[in-house]
User: What shape does this take?
Amino acid sequence: MNLELSPSVKYWLNFFHPLIMWLLFVLSIYAAYLGLQVQRTRNSQGEEKKELIKGRYNIRHYQIGSILLGLMVAGAIGGMAVTYINNGKLFVGPHLLAGLGMTSLIAFSAALSPYMQKGANWARMTHILLNFTLLGLFAWQAVTGVQIVQRILTNA
Ligand code: HEM
Ligand code: HEM
Assistant: This one.
């Protein structure tokens, strides 16, 4: 397929995915904070519980989590699209594989939502395990991502 984009558009497209992904990294740390507050709320009692419930952490966590899900799927597809537009192929390397892995992890983790809301402990445990793995992979993905950006800048 011959995509008729001007060279400068093709070049600037390269920075869209990294910017969105850094924003998502910050957002996922915030989601983790909210998730841990959900857990704290559930395990607390009396006055403390009343105070924590006012924070509506479960609702806020679900909302931020949903935004994260949508942007991560779109962001990974976008990264592949820009790579293909610029190189006519994908590079099967750590960044591609970890990226596809993360996209699958977040899909499974979000799919556990109805079960967690019914109070299933297995779903909560799996959700936490999947997401802290996701955060670890994200840190790694940020490192390999910045290396790709550096390569693009030196080749420009
Ligand atoms: C955290 C910071 C990240 C940075 C700085 C970064 C940077 C990059 C860059 C520069 C590219 C080349 C394409 C382009 O220029 O747009 C790329 C490709 C890609 N990124 Fe990222 N990325 C990051 C995070 C992520 C995350 C979280 C995912 C998935 C959830 C992801 C998935 C991908 C995929 C699948 C590709 C295509 C790789 C290929 O075919 O070679 N990236 N990334
Ligand atoms: C970085 C990503 C995420 C982290 C670290 C994270 C972490 C957590 C934690 C620690 C809990 C508390 C479990 C408990 O009560 O013991 C939780 C609950 C929950 N999470 Fe996440 N989560 C993430 C992303 C998501 C996403 C993407 C969704 C869905 C779109 C989501 C939906 C939920 C729901 C529905 C609950 C149950 C809330 C309730 O009890 O009402 N989370 N999460």
Summary: The chain has one domain: 7-155.
